[in-house]
Amino acid sequence: MDKLKMHSINKVDENIEKIGKLFPNCITERKNEKGEVEYAIDFDMLKQELSDVVVEGNEERYQFTWPDKKKSILLANAPIAKTLRPCREESVDFDNTENLYIEGDNLEVLKTLQETYLGKIDVIYIDPPYNTGKNLIYKNNYHQSAEDFMLLNEELDEDGNILVENTEANGRYHTDWLNMMYTRLKVAKNLLKDDGIIVVTIDDYEIENTLKLLNEIYGEDNNLGVVTVRNNPKGRMTQKKISQVHEYIIFFGKTPNSIIKKLPVAPEDKSHNYEKDADGSYYVKVNLRKQGVDSEAIKPDGTLRKRYFPIYYNPDTNEISATKKLPIEIYPIDNAGNKRIWRRDEKGVNELFKNGDLFCSCIKGEYQLHFKFRGGLDGEMPKSIWIDSKFSASEYGTSVLNEILGREVFSYPKALPAVMHTIKCCSNSKDALILDFFSGSATTAHAVMQLNAEDGGNRRFIMVQIPAKVDENTGNVQNKFATICEIGKERIRRAGAIIKEESPMTTANLDIGFRVLKLDSTNMKDVYYNPAEYELNLFDTLADNIKEDRTPEDLLFQVMLDLGVLLSSKIEESIIGGKKVFNVADGFLYACFDDNVTEDVITEIAKKNPYYFVMRDSSMANDSVATNFDQIFATYSPDTVRKVL
User: Fold this and answer.
1) Helix 443-455 × helix 416-426 angle, to 10°
2) Exposed, middle or buried: residue 32 (CB in 10 Å: 0-12, 13-18, 19+)?
3) With b meaning 16 or more CB within 10 Å and e meaning fewer, what string describes 361-373?
């Protein structure tokens, strides 16, 4: 139901709409005096449309811009004071898993991961919110509190995207979406390996802008192709437009070292026409005559090409030869009677026959030569159109998720086979690290586990999702999940259990766990970063610079982020001198955050020769410990890098 406007008509908006119908290229977007995005007229372009000569104006150049683009660039480079806090109770197999599930705004999360995962990600797969004429919940500034942020009026569109109201009146169509995507794509690039690939799924509305964004950030030369995938065979129920049955998958490499991988070919796949030889080997039957107009036998000067010659055949003995005269001569003539050439020269033909790879068949009274092509089983390059039914989002996306969770809780998740297929196009490494920072229902995590189950791989995933609220009612059922994160985590739990149950013998060592980490403000008190904001008489209460509600494990994960230690690293706890000590990555990092740490404790840790040792500055038992701290390490482990909080 529409609300009454309760004010007179805005003639400016009406006139802009009229001009836009006559000259769509003269409509642009700008910021008004209130900082709001609105439609406007490009008067320079309008002048040109109304003139029969070139109108003098700003120098023309190729560019791609929009309101606040410069601010987006600034925002992508700006630091933040955030950390990731572990949540054991929501994790699965926390101590052993190498997978991560991170809750929080994805731009902030990407920034916290920049040091630790710099150049470590093999594949980034994202299915960002499609621009359906509404604004996005993902904020592009850090001035809004987390509490206010989560109180936004969220809703989901038919593809499960997070939206808030964005009416035509405020003109927020492309600008806000571009600002949201630009910062995230720019920061994400830093995380990719040199040969890494980013994959973006998108629909018609923002395909052009997405390509322009990726061209600008990753470079046009690193465009690896666009796939059209039939994800919705029934089509969208639109009244005015052609019913859309497809979406796009865009592949971009970080550098020229990034290449699309061949997909394995199953010889039993009838679509590839593989046949089985007597010895059990596979081949494809190929006509020896070269096809196409570029292979015509007659040269421009009227002479015949080298590979135009008769091949002799004896139907009684089945003998074939390019040199020995036999009863029947076969020339490379096509069905229209045109002279062509052979795919092989005389020597090549004889070699094919010698190897048993050349044979002759009689089709409609005419003899045709074929050879057995035994290549291709090493794989084939992915095609630009995916029409297989397994890519249907309703059949292999929604139905799969509903079956796992027992009810409809999330609309139109990606088809599981489509994500698996995409990952295989980007990396043939069974140890690949895959990042999805628009995780949604966690289809990507499910795909990674399924791939590992099928080929014994050890791929790992990092899922990032903002804990946006979901509708209390989905379809005709009561939604028992409060946020999208709850849906994603539960899907991973159940999908992992199902995969193991289906193949218990081959999935015994399959990693179906994940560490849950939640984005939060830094563990350090504000005075640690902004002492100028506090009066001197407050410092007596701030002798400890750690926030009171933070645990030693919270501190450990912030230290891991600061020192570039993978957040999936193995963590062991031990007691030394009555104090809890963390051993991370098999001795790479030792940390102790307890109070009253004595010289004996520090000595025992130093004897273990860690690469890093970290403790709280306020944890030393007395001045003597502080005085002797460096000397202890100089004696037992001089190369250890020592840090204090």
Assistant:
1) 70
2) exposed
3) eeeeeeeebbbbe
Token reading at 377: 């089983």
Tell me the three state secondary structure of residue 361. Answer: strand
The label of the residue with tokens 């008489």 reads 537
pLDDT band (50, 70, 90) for residue 156 = very low
Q: Report d(CA 339, CA 342) in Å as an integer.
A: 10
pLDDT at 532: 53
CA distance 334 to 28: 57
Q: Strand, helix or coil at 433?
A: strand
Whole-number average pLDDT of the chain:
83
Alpha carbons 306 and 218: distance in angstroms, whole number: 46
Which among 215-224, 473-482, 568-577 has the top mean pLDDT? 568-577
pTM comes to 0.78
Helices and strands (H and E) in the chain: how many: 17, 29
Summarize pLDDT for 11-47 with one digit per residue, the tens. 677 788 888 777 777 788 777 777 777 788 888 778 8
Burial class of 322 by CB neighbour count within 10 A (0 to 12, 13 to 18, 19+): buried
Calculate the dihedral angle through the C-alpha atoms of 448, 454, 456, 461, rounding to the nearest 10 degrees: 0
Task: For residues 617 and 555, give the distance between their C-alpha atoms in angstroms, rounded to a whole number.
Answer: 13
Do residues 117 and 102 touch, judged by C-beta distance below 8 A? Answer: no
Q: How far is CA 351 from CA 357, 372, 419, in A?
A: 8, 12, 44
Whole-number pLDDT of residue 398:
86
What beta strand segments (E) does 54-212 contain?
82-86, 100-103, 121-126, 135-136, 155-156, 162-164, 192-202
Q: How far apart are CA 309 and CA 364, in angstroms?
A: 22
What are 90-133's pLDDT values in tens digits?
Answer: 999 999 999 999 999 999 999 999 999 999 999 999 999 876 55
Q: Which two tokens stand for residue 104?
A: 């929080």
Cα(446)–Cα(441) distance, integer angstroms: 9
Spacing of C-alpha 473 from chain mean position = 30
Convert the pLDDT of each residue in 342-380 to its tens digit: 998 888 888 888 888 888 888 777 888 888 887 766 678
- Separation between Cα atoms, residue 311 and residue 326, nearest integer Å: 9
Q: Write out the two tokens for 642.
A: 């020592």
Walk across the sheet containing 589-592 and list its strands.
Answer: 571-576, 579-584, 589-592, 612-615, 641-644
The first and second tokens of residue 598, run together, are 């004595």
Residues 507-530 have pLDDT tens digits of: 889 999 999 999 999 998 865 445
Report the distance separating Cα 335 and Cα 533, nearest Å.
87
Q: Which residues pair with 289 in a beta bridge?
A: 342
**Alpha-carbon distances of 326 from 118, 315, 317, rounded to whole Å:** 68, 9, 10
CA–CA separation, 215 and 70 (whole Å): 17
Q: Is the dihedral of CA 148, 150, 151, 153 positive or negative?
A: positive
Q: What is the DSSP letter of 323?
A: S
Which are the contacts of 555, defined by CB distance < 8 A and separation ≥ 6?
A: 523, 546, 591, 593, 616, 645
The residue written with tokens 């604004």 in the block is 135
Whether the per-residue pLDDT at 161 is higher than 50: the answer is no
